[in-house]
């Protein structure tokens, strides 16, 4: 992200009810714990419109609560303005990456750097798998990956 007064980050997954809200909440907590919230604007969105207006999956909320994190996020779909205002758009898998790159090509003045959140994983797990059809353990895996990646991302751009 830019080293400006207000750095911007958006986290994107297909439906915005599992992975990206977990990543958003994790990053927001890291930023708050570091007392950097005045320097960051963090949000998450979906490439699809399937879940617009819905709260995160109950298993995602439960996982976050188990780690002392709350969120009031409601799913939304990524917009053209997101590509023009966010410095970074970080996504969860190759399908998200393809969709975002395709959408960004239709946007004038796209300033967002689009990449996989897993790029920042010190354990080199590039893809954050969708836990929707899994169980609580799968959500915990997503949480742990997001925590590692978000910490590394924040260290790089703080």
UniProtKB/TrEMBL annotation:
Belongs to the low molecular weight phosphotyrosine protein phosphatase family. The active site is at 19, 130 (proton donor). GO terms for cellular component: cytoplasm. Its EC number is 3.1.3.2, 3.1.3.48. Acts on tyrosine phosphorylated proteins, low-MW aryl phosphates and natural and synthetic acyl phosphates. Residues 12-156 form the Phosphotyrosine protein phosphatase I domain. This is Low molecular weight phosphotyrosine protein phosphatase. It catalyses: O-phospho-L-tyrosyl-[protein] + H2O = L-tyrosyl-[protein] + phosphate; a phosphate monoester + H2O = an alcohol + phosphate. It is found in: Cytoplasm. GO terms for molecular function: acid phosphatase activity; non-membrane spanning protein tyrosine phosphatase activity. Keywords: Cytoplasm, Hydrolase, Protein phosphatase. SUPFAM superfamilies: Phosphotyrosine protein phosphatases I. It comes from the Eukaryota.
């Amino acid at each position: 992200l830019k080293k400006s007064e207000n750095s911007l980050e958006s986290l994107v997954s297909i439906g915005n009810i599992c992975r990206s809200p977990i990543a958003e909440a994790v990053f927001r907590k890291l930023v708050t714990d570091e007392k950097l919230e005045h320097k960051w604007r963090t949000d998450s969105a979906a490439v699809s419109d399937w879940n617009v207006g819905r709260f995160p999956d109950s298993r995602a909320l439960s996982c976050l609560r188990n780690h002392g994190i709350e969120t009031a996020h409601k799913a939304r779909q990524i917009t053209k303005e997101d590509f023009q205002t966010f410095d970074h758009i970080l996504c969860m898998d190759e399908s998200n990456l393809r969709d975002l790159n395709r959408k960004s090509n239709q946007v004038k003045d796209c300033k967002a750097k689009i990449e996989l959140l897993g790029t920042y994983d010190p354990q080199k797990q590039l893809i954050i798998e969708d836990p929707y059809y899994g169980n609580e353990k799968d959500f915990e895996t997503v949480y742990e990956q997001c925590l590692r990646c978000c910490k590394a991302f924040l260290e790089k751009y703080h």
